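Protein folding task:
====================
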Amino acid sequence: MNFEVTSVQQLQEQLARVRYLADDGLATALFLAARLPQPLLLEGVSGVGKSELARALSEALGLPFVRLQCYEGLDSREALYDWNYLRQLLELRRAEGSGQGAGAELNLFSSQFLSPGPLLRALQLSEERPAVLLIDELDRADEAFEAFLLEFLADFAITIPELGTIRPGVPPIVLITSNRIRELHDALKRRCLYHWVAYPSLEQELAIVRLRAPEVPPELARAVVEAVRWLRSLDLQKQPGIAEALAWARAIRALGHEALTPAVAEQTLGVVVKNRDDVERVRSTAFSGLAR
C-alpha cells in the first residue's frame, strides 16, 4: 500500500484514533482489501457499524470517501454518470446569443458537461492514492445492477463513448455492505473478500461507548450496554444497534440521570426502540432485564 499502512495492528491503531474499534478479524480483512487490492464484502445485521467502517477508514488514512447508496430500481446510469442537459442547453443558447449560430462547432459532450456518479467519481479521485468507495446495502438493489457491478469490479474502468475509457491511477478501496435482505450471487462473492460483522462482545461494546461518549459515567455506560444486549435477546423486529446504544447513553446523561432505572428506561425508550410493537413488547416485560 502506498498510503502509510504496513500492518494490521497499525491499521487498528489508526482506526482507533478516529474512534472506530476494529477487532483483529475485521482489521485483517480491511488490510487485505487495501493491500491486494480486492473488494471487501461486509455482511451482518443492521446497526453493527459496517457503513461507518468505510467512513472511518477514509478519515484515518486521509483518503477521499465516495458512497453509493443502493436501492430497488437503481440502474447503471445513476451509478456511473449522466450528462448535464441544462448546462448543455445554456451553453447552446449562449453560443447562439453571441452570434456563433447553430453552425458553430460546439462540443456539448466534453468533460465540463459530465455529471459523474459515485462509481465514476471514485475512479477520478483514485490517482496516486486510492479513494474509499462504499457500495452500501447492495442487497437492496436489483439483481441486474448486481450483475453490472460485477463487471465494474473486474475492470475498474468506465467507457464513455464521447470521451473514451476512464481508468484510475490506482484501484479504489471498495467496501460493499449487505444486511442480507436477499442473498447476493456467488459470482460477486467470489470476486470479494468476505467478513461477517457480528454484534461486539459486552466488553467491546462498552469500550466503544466509552470511547465515543466519554461524557457518560462508566457505571451508566455499562448499564446501558447490558440493557441493550438484553433488548437484543427479546427477538425484537428491529434490534438496537451500536448507534442506538450510544444515543441512549447520551440521552440519559443529557437528562441529568446517573443510573438506568425502569423509570428512566420508560422515559427514554424511544431513543433505543423504534418500532411500536417492539415498544409494547419491551413494556410488557416491566423492564425486567435492566440494572436497577
Strands lie at 40-43, 65-69, 81-83, 114-116, 132-136, 158-160, 164-166, 173-178, 193-196. Residues 202-281 form one domain. The longest strand covers residues 173-178.
